[in-house]
Amino acid sequence: MTIDSTFHHGDPVTGAPIVEMKGIEKHFGNVIALAGVSFDIRPGECHCLLGDNGAGKSTFIKTMSGVHKPTKGEILFEGRPMSFSSPRDAMEAGIATVFQDLAMIPLMSVTRNFFMGREPKKGEGLFRRMDLGAANEICVEEMRKMGINLRGPDQAVGTLSGGERQTVAIARAVYFGAKVLILDEPTSALGVRQTSNVLATIDRVRKQGVGVVFISHNVRHALAVGDRFTVLNRGKTLGTATRGDITPEALQDLMAGGQEMAQLEGSLGGTI
Amino acid sequence: MPTDAALMMDERIKTEPFVARLMKRPELGAIGGVILVTLFFLVTADSSMFTLSGIMNFLTPAAQLGILGIAAAMLMIGGEFDLSIGSMVAFAGMIFGVLTVNLGLPLIVSIPLTMIFAAGVGAVNGLIVIRSGLPSFIVTLAGLFILRGASLVGLKLFTGGSTQLRGVREAVEGDFLAPLFSGDAFGFVFRWLAEIGVIEKFRSGTPKVPGIPVEILWFVLVAAVATYVLLRTARGNWIFAAGGDRNAASNSGVPVDKVKIALFMATACAAALVAVITVIDSGSTDARRGFMKEFEAIITAVIGGCLLTGGYGSAIGAFFGAIIFGMVTIGLTYTNFDQDWFQVFLGGMLLIAVLFNNAIRKRVTGER
C-alpha cells in the first residue's frame, strides 16, 4: 500500500455542495490577492486546496471563514447566497476553521480548551456553573473517538504532541457541529508519524459527513487523503481535478506554475 | 462494562500517584511555604505566637493583605497587573471618609457608592489598557501616582489642610451595617467557649479573644468566592483563557476585553473593601493608607503560584501566600531576630516562589 491510498475510501462523493464560491475576488487597496477563485465543498469529501506560498491560500480561507468580505463574487451556503459579517457568524452556520495556531492554551487542561468559550452549564442563578463532570466525560469520549487516549481530562494541552493538539482542535470543531471544516496546513509542522495520525483523523471526520477543506502545500499529504484537488496560483484557481485523474507530478507542476519546477526537479533528482 | 473500560485504557499510561497529581497544583508551593514558615516559628518564636490570640494577631494583617492579594491573583491569571491598588486603598478610603463624615451618609449608601467609584476607576484602568494595547504595568503605574496624589490633595481639600480625616468611627457608630465591616464576629461563641473553659479568659471572665476579626471572615469569603469562580464557572474558564493566550481565547469566542475590564473593576473593589474595613477600624483615613500594598499583593499572588505571564495560578494559593506574609511580619516580633529581617525574608520568599512556579509550569506543560 502506498501512502497515496492509505486513507482513501471508495467512491467520489456526489451531492449538493455545502459551500459554493464563484469567481471570488479580493482586493486590498491596489493589491489583488484573489483574482477569480471558484471552489466548492460537498459533505463527506476532502477537498484539497493546494498552492505555493503567496498563492492566496490564507486570503481565501479567511474569505470563506468570514474574516474578509470578498470584493467580488458570490458565496452560496447550502444553496443560498450568504454573507458572513464575522467569523462568529460563519462558525454558527457550521463553517469551522482550525488555524495554524490552533487556538489552544498550553497551560489549560484539554477539557477547558475543548469547551473554551462554549462551556456546558448547570445550576441556576448565582450557582450557575460549568458542568465539569459532563465536560470531562464528553471530552474524553470525543478524544477517544479520534484515537487519543488522554491520561485524564485534566491533562494540560501543553503535554500533547503537535499532532494530538491538531486532533483536539479538529475534534472540538466537529463536536460543535461543523459542517465544513477548514484546516490550514495541519501537517506542515508535524513529523511523519503525527502527520499520518492527522490524516487518519481527517479521514474519520470525512466519514461522519463533514466536508473537509484541507489546505496544504505538500502534494503527498494531499494525495494521501484528498478526493478532489484545486490548485491556487497567483490568486487564481487553475481548475479542479478529481482523485485518480491527476498524477502527483502534474499537481506539483501546477502548484509551482510549471517550468521552473521541472528544472529544479532535475537537479534534485525528483525528491520533492 | 469491563470491555468498555478496557477500551478506555491505554497500556502506556500508568495511573498517576496522588503525590504526582498534587505536585501539579499551583497552590502547592504556598501550602508548603505555610508549613515551612510555621515550623520555623514553632522553633524560633515565643510559644504565645501559636495561642488563639497570637493566631488572630497574625491573621488580621494577613486578611487585609489577602483580600487584595486574591484580587491581584485573579487579575494576574487574567494576564494583567494592577499597581494602583495600594493607592486605590487610600483613594477609596478618602471617598468613604468624605461620604460618611462630611456628608453624613449611612453605610448602606456610602459603602455601595465607594464601591461604584472604585469600580469606575478600575474600569478606566482596564479600558486604557485594552484600547491602547499598552502593558498594564505601565498604565497602572501611572494610576499608582495619580491616585496617591489625588488622595493627598483631596484630603487636604476636604479637611481644610490635613492629610488625615478623623471621626469616621463616631460617624458610623450605631449603623446597623457596621458590625459587618468592623470589630469581631461570633463574640457569643467565644464567650461561651471561655465560660466552659475551652479558651483562655481574663480574670473578669471575658475571653482574651473576643471574636474573629471581621476582616478574617471577609478574607475567607473572598477566597471561597474567587476559587469557585475560577474553578467552577465558565467565567473562570474565560479568565484562564484570557490570560493564557488572548488571541486563542478570542478566536474561540471568549469576550477577552470584557473579562479583563471586569477583573480590573473587581481588583479596585477589593481595594475599596479593604479601605472600608481598615478605615472604620482605625476611625480615620489618611493618604498613606495602603502604601506599598500593590507590591505586597503581587508578591502574595506569586507566592500563591501565579505566573507573571498569566493564565496560571490560584486563589487558594494567594490565600496561603497572604498567611505566610502575615506570619512573617508579625512572627518576627515573637522572636529574637531583628524585625528588619522581614524585607530580606520577603525578597527571598519571592525569589524562591518564582523559581518554583517556573519549575511547576514546565512540569504541567511537559516543557523540556
Structural features:
heterodimer; A: 272 residues; alpha/beta; Rossmann fold; 6-stranded mixed sheet; 4-stranded antiparallel sheet; 25% strand; B: mainly alpha; ABC transporter involved in vitamin B12 uptake, BtuC; two-stranded antiparallel sheet; two-stranded antiparallel ribbon; globular; disordered N terminus
Describe the structure.
The complex is a heterodimer of chains A (272) and B (368). Chain A is α/β, with parallel strands linked by helices and 272 residues long. Chain A contains 10 helices and 12 strands. Chain A starts with a helix and ends with a helix. Chain B has 17 helices and 4 strands. In chain B, helix 4 (52-77) crosses helix 15 and helix 11 packs across helix 12 (234-244). Chain B starts with a helix and ends with a helix. In chain B, the strands form 2 sheets. Chain B has a two-stranded antiparallel sheet with strand order 1-4. In chain B, strands 2-3 form a two-stranded antiparallel ribbon. In chain B, 70% of the residues lie in helices and 3% in strands. Classes of the chains: A alpha/beta (272), B mainly alpha (368).
Record the SSE blueprint.
The complex is a heterodimer of chains A (272) and B (368).
Chain A: H1 3-6, E1 19-28, E2 31-41, E3 46-51, H2 57-64, E4 72-77, E5 80-81, H3 87-93, E6 95-98, H4 110-114, E7 121-122, E8 129-130, H5 132-145, H6 162-175, E9 180-184, H7 192-207, E10 211-216, H8 219-225, E11 228-233, E12 236-242, H9 248-256, H10 259-268
Chain B: H1 2-8, H2 18-22, H3 28-44, H4 52-77, H5 85-102, H6 107-132, H7 136-159, E1 164-166, H8 168-172, H9 178-181, E2 184-185, H10 187-195, E3 212-213, H11 214-232, H12 234-244, H13 246-251, H14 256-282, E4 284-286, H15 293-303, H16 315-331, H17 341-365
Antiparallel strand pairs in B: 1-4, 2-3
Helix pairs in contact in B: 3-16, 4-11, 4-12, 4-14, 4-15, 4-16, 5-6, 5-7, 5-14, 6-7, 6-14, 11-12, 11-16, 12-14, 15-16
